[in-house]
Amino acid sequence: MSHQITIKPSNHVYTAQEGETLLESALREGFALPYGCRNGACGTCKGKILEGSVDYGEYQKSALSEAEIQAGMALFCCAMPQSDLVIECREIGAAKDIQIKTLPCRVQQMEKVSHDVMVLSLKLPANERLQFLAGQYVDILMKDGKHRSFSMANAPHDDALLQLHVRNIAGGTFTEHVFNTMKEKDILRFEGPLGTFFLREDSDKPIIFMAGGTGFAPIKSMLEHAFHVEMDREMVLYWGVRSLQDLYMPALAGQWQQEHPNFTFIPVLSEARPEDHWDGRSGLVHEAVLQDFPDLSGYQVYACGSPGMVEAGHKAFMQHGLPEDEFLSDSFLFQTPAVPAQ
After folding, report:
1. Do the strands 207-212 and 300-305 form a parallel or antiparallel pair, or are they unpaired?
2. Is domain 101-194 given the CATH code 2.40.30.10 in the classification?
3. Cα(3)–Cα(112) distance, integer angstroms
4. Which of 40, 180, 210, 239 meets the CB 3.0–4.6 Å disulfide criterion with 78?
């Protein structure tokens, strides 16, 4: 049985087919709703059910609390309609016309840029290019049917190769394959582009980028795009890592700072080692942001890294005046089992 879905405040109307989530049906009919992980873990797709009822599906309780459910909220990547619905959410117009593809690719180059980060350069088949927005990601499709998500680190104009930054995670099936058995010329399959974490170019507000670890990858894409289109907005990058060895591309960010007067790079180490001889910024990266920008009311923030870093930044930045819709984020989530709604 199909159900009619009305989106507020746009009044767009679409139809959800049997077995489709709200997100799946909206994307199929060309309406780009916000989403990130698509498995009920990150909360990016959260919206409000104004009228009608849904099956909430399986999701991580950290992404949707019981209080939020009582307030009418749902995760659209998991929720399936049980009736006609009126929902309230923000639509992403810029991603609407970009085709999501499933493609093979060849591992063109593997470069180990630090003790635990590998840069993969992937070549698409002849005459193929992947159109994407700076900040989006692809899903690597594994033989067991599972997928692993990685942001493109290259800018959209620089699309001869797709660049992924892969951190070696102990026990991670794909990442251990990358570091131990993958070879150049291996063939992978992926789906993309995906996600609504991308650079909004219709604003004139100054930008604060906050990256944690390999959360630098999509922000690198955004910054290189901004430089390419000669964006004149003031931009600051805070890149938080544990120790100096984790700062895997500092020379590139330093080069940007030399070449672009409107860009500033501030690395932040949370656990600097004695051998680092570090005299730069220390502590938590979101606290470094607030030390420099105690009033965020006039800014736009892009945050990418661990869920803990993103959540801490979001909470603190809201308390310092950042408008809710000016906080754009992507959490790097590792595979953990989802739990059914109670």
Report:
1. parallel
2. yes
3. 50
4. 40
